[in-house]
């Protein structure tokens, strides 16, 4: 067999309601594999935040989950505007979301900080005008 | 007595093998095999949705026979709050209590009264601030089962107190024994609005000290009770339960009685599943308490009721408005928190795991994903599983072959 299970998802950029579908599916998979609830919870929250970020800032993108026996790696890849100042974006409460999006209850500036908080490793590759790829790793 | 471990059984003569119940089942616990609906009991949470949706009445809820009551010398009835919403033109709940006594019970202990005590205990536990927020109500046993089956990551949010029916039984027994009635003579019968409560009380029977002797059905007792109630004039003032306890019979009653500002209540299988998903994604920040009921409208929507849930809820509200009895407190009944707290936490279910071994589970999952690519993904149900994914999982788990009308039709 392969050394890991790969699951791929399209994240629809126009739809807040469907954001979370990818993390929902990954969550279901992890439960079927018997991954303990505390880790499922971490993955769910971190990945959901990542999906929402792609919807808010980048008109959607792709989510890829690689499940290994001892950890999960999640790649959230978009072709959005990129992040100009990563350190600033990592600050709790900082957000470039529009008023419109804030009025929907999103864009509180907690997306990236929460993704870091609930993962064991996080890397961001970004270029302005090209896009962003966030890698999240959660160990089981 | 015999312990029932199934709450819903199939009348296979009436089952025509349609896929209605299979589609509605919130835990994918039904398959159609050889033209008949089959319940996978390890995935069943006893919610009663299949009973509700079966057009032919083929799904039969299991409960104890009323005849069992007469085998005890001292009989105590535990009516649930929702029972009071089942009668036309009922303006005084005391008719129901008198009716139950006329049916042969020696004593009636209202579950609504126990519910008020559970409210008092919950409020105290929440003030201590040690329970993770939001606290999730455990009054609906089907919701608690669903969490242990599909949302184990939320298990530490469950309110660790027994549901009102069990508390009512414990307290009724304690009081009866204190009055000198021999424990062996006491038969305590909960009159249930739903199969989930029948099941959960029967199961607790196995592991805990015996409080409940049997669980009756509201619909089974209804006509016997109405007959007795019609003969009653000027009932005594027996009712001890107030508006707060009666309110527990419909969705929102429990959370309302806690006097919290930031709470959510919701009911109905799809709504409950939706809210659990949101909670699992960490989206309910700031919410103190969540009350969920699998039945639409709360316990009044249970499949062992007679009246339409929304009509029943209105009737209960009319009764509540007249009841001026303040909520019962733990002091009044000389109780402390230990009387309410679980003896042990519920065990998580592994029914949805593909294999206890992680590597084996991963191998099976790869097979499921491969098979899914071949299936049409239209979830038509013709194969006897509710979704293509479910069918793929069944095939991988059983080592059989997929059978799909769409695929076979395409090949022909």
| Whole-angstrom Rg of chain B | 23 Å
**CATH homolog superfamily of chain A:** Histidine kinase-like ATPase, C-terminal domain
Query: What structural class do you assign from the helix and strand content of chain A?
Result: alpha+beta
Portion of residues in beta strands of chain B equals 5-15%
Strand content of chain A: 25-35%
What is the overall silhouette of chain B? globular
CATH hierarchy class name of the largest domain in chain B: Alpha Beta
Order of strands in the sheet with most strands of chain A: 1-2-3-5-4
Report the principal-axis shape of chain A. Answer: globular
Question: What is the topological layout?
Answer:
The complex is a heterodimer of chains A (140) and B (412).
Chain A: E1 5-12, H1 21-32, H2 37-58, E2 60-67, E3 71-78, H3 86-89, H4 99-102, H5 111-117, E4 121-127, E5 131-139
Antiparallel strand pairs in A: 1-2, 2-3, 3-5, 4-5
Helix pairs in contact in A: 1-2, 2-5
Chain B: E1 8-10, H1 20-24, E2 30-33, E3 36-39, H2 49-53, E4 59-61, E5 74-79, H3 94-102, E6 107-108, H4 111-127, E7 135-136, H5 141-150, H6 164-178, E8 186-192, H7 195-207, E9 214-217, H8 218-229, H9 243-247, H10 253-257, E10 263-267, H11 269-280, E11 289-293, H12 309-322, H13 358-374, H14 388-398, H15 405-411
Helix pairs in contact in B: 3-8, 4-6, 13-14
Give structural notes.
The complex is a heterodimer of chains A (140) and B (412). Chain A is of the alpha+beta class and 140 residues long. Helix content of chain A is 35%, strand content 29%. Chain A contains 5 helices and 5 strands. The two termini of chain A are 21 Å apart. Chain B has 3 domains: 1-62, Alpha-Beta Plaits (2-Layer Sandwich), CATH 3.30.70.20; 66-127 and 160-255 and 299-339, Rossmann fold (3-Layer(aba) Sandwich); 354-412, 3-methyladenine DNA Glycosylase II, Chain A, domain 3, CATH 1.10.15. The radius of gyration of chain B is 23 Å and the shape is globular. The mean pLDDT of chain B is 93. The A-B interface holds A 1-2, 5, 7, 20, 23-24, 27, 29, 31-35, 37-38, 40-41, 44-45, 48, 67, 69, 114 and B 150, 152-155, 277, 280-283, 348, 350, 352-356, 358-359, 361-363, 365-366, 369.
């Amino acid at each position: 067999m392969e050394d890991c299970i790969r699951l791929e998802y399209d994240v629809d950029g126009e739809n807040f309601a469907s954001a979370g579908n990818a993390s929902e599916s990954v969550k279901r998979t992890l439960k079927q594999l018997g991954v303990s609830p505390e880790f499922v919870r971490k993955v769910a929250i971190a990945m959901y935040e990542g999906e929402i970020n792609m919807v808010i800032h980048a008109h959607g993108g792709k989510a890829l989950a690689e499940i290994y026996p001892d950890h999960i790696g999640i790649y959230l890849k978009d072709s959005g505007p990129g992040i100009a100042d990563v350190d600033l974006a990592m600050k709790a409460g900082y957000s470039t979301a529009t008023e419109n999006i804030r009025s929907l209850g999103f864009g509180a500036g907690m997306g990236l900080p929460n993704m870091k908080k609930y993962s064991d490793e996080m890397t961001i590759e970004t270029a302005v005008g090209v896009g962003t790829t966030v890698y999240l790793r959660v160990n089981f | 007595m015999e312990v029932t471990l199934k709450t819903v059984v199939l009348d296979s003569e009436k089952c025509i093998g349609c896929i209605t119940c299979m589609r509605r089942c919130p835990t994918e616990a039904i398959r159609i095999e050889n033209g008949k609906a089959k319940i996978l009991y390890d995935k069943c949470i006893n919610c009663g949705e299949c009973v509700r949706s079966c057009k032919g009445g083929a799904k039969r809820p299991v409960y104890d026979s009323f005849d069992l009551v007469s085998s005890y010398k001292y009989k105590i009835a535990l009516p649930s709050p929702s029972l009071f919403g089942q009668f036309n033109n009922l303006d005084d709940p005391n008719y129901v209590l008198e009716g139950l006594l006329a049916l042969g019970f020696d004593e009636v202990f209202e579950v609504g009264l126990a519910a008020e005590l559970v409210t008092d205990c919950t409020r105290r536990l929440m003030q201590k601030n040690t329970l993770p927020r939001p606290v999730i109500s455990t009054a609906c046993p089907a919701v608690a089962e669903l969490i242990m089956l599909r949302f184990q990551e939320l298990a530490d949010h469950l309110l660790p107190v027994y549901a009102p029916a069990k508390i009512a039984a414990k307290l009724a027994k304690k009081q009866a024994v204190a009055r000198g009635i021999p424990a062996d003579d006491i038969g305590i019968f909960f009159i249930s609005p739903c199969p989930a409560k029948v099941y959960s009380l029967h199961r607790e029977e196995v592991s805990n000290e015996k409080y409940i002797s049997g669980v009756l059905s509201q619909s089974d007792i209804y006509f016997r009770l109405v007959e007795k109630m019609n003969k009653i004039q000027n009932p005594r003032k027996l009712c001890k339960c107030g508006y707060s306890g009666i309110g527990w019979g419909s969705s929102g009653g429990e959370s309302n009685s806690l006097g919290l500002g930031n709470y959510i209540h919701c009911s109905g299988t799809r709504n409950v599943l939706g809210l659990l998903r949101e909670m699992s994604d960490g989206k309910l920040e700031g919410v103190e308490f969540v009350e969920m009921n699998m039945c639409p409208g709360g316990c009044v929507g249970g499949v062992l009721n007679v009246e339409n849930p929304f009509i029943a809820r209105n009737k209960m509200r009319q009764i509540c408005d007249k009841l001026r009895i303040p909520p019962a407190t733990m002091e009044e009944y000389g109780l402390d928190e230990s009387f309410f707290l679980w003896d042990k936490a519920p065990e998580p279910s592994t029914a949805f795991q593909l294999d206890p071994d992680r590597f084996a589970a991963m191998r099976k999952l790869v097979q499921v994903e491969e098979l899914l690519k071949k299936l049409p993904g239209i979830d038509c149900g013709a194969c006897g599983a509710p979704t293509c994914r479910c069918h793929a999982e069944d095939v991988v788990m059983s080592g059989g072959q997929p059978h799909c009308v769409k695929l076979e039709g395409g090949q022909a």
